[in-house]
């Protein structure tokens, strides 16, 4: 009986290994599909950390235009030699974020299923301090390197979004 289980395991393992991994963003589309229906109000938030001295909370609010699960080939994250991510310029940080999700140095490229949501922007609040330059996607009235305006459509991973609060 053990031999049968071993043979079965050896036959099934290659089939499972070839299947693309389901990222948390893709899992969210299955777990909470009602949150990502067309026209649903969603918000992307940055900041707000801390217990006593709470950081300011910045946001981008909009409505869902489309939600989809895409197979994406993950490659290694771009790196700037001699710099940590905290030392990146805005342009270097934008390049890094656009490459995410990505892999650490030395990891082999692989396919993963990513849940993407297209959002039509309605309102936002962005940081203007220089220290926020490489701290998030929102900075000085921009989403990455795009100037924010009403009606602009952007794409985010589903797990970065939450429901709008009344």
Which characteristics define this entry?
166 residues; alpha+beta; three-stranded antiparallel beta sheet; 3 helices; disordered N terminus; signal
Explain the layout of strands and helices.
Layout: H1 2-18, E1 21-22, H2 24-31, E2 41-47, E3 57-74, H3 90-99, E4 110-125, E5 138-139, E6 142-143, E7 146-147, E8 153-157, E9 161-163
What is the number of beta strands?
9
- Classify the beta-strand content into a percent band: 25-35%
**Helix and strand pattern:** HEHEEHEEEEEE
Mean pLDDT: 81
DSSP summary: helix tally: 3
Count the domains.
1
Describe what you observe in this structure:
Keywords: Signal. Residues 1-17 form the signal peptide. The chain contains 3 helices and 9 strands; from the N terminus they run H-E-H-E-E-H-E-E-E-E-E-E. It has one domain. Strands 1, 2, 3, 4, 8 and 9 form a 6-stranded mixed beta sheet that branches. Strands 5-6-7 form a 3-stranded antiparallel beta sheet, with no helix packed on it. With 166 residues, the chain is α+β, with helices and mostly antiparallel strands.
In brief, what are we looking at here?
The protein is α+β, with helices and mostly antiparallel strands and 166 residues long.
């Amino acid at each position: 009986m053990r031999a049968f289980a071993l043979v079965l395991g050896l036959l099934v393992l290659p089939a499972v290994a070839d299947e693309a991994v389901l990222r948390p963003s893709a899992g969210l589309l299955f777990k909470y599909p009602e949150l990502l229906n067309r026209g649903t109000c969603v918000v992307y938030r940055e900041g707000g950390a801390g217990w006593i001295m709470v950081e300011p909370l910045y946001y981008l609010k909009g409505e869902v235009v489309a939600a989809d699960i895409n197979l994406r080939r993950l490659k290694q994250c771009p790196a700037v030699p001699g710099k940590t991510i905290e030392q990146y310029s805005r342009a270097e940080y934008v390049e890094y974020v656009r490459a995410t999700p990505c892999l650490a140095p030395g990891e082999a490229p692989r396919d993963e299923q990513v849940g993407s949501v297209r959002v039509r922007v309605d309102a936002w609040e962005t940081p203007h301090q220089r220290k926020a330059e490489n701290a998030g996607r929102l900075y000085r009235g921009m989403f990455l390197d795009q100037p924010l305006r009403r009606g602009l459509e952007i794409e985010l991973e589903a797990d970065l979004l939450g429901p709008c609060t009344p």
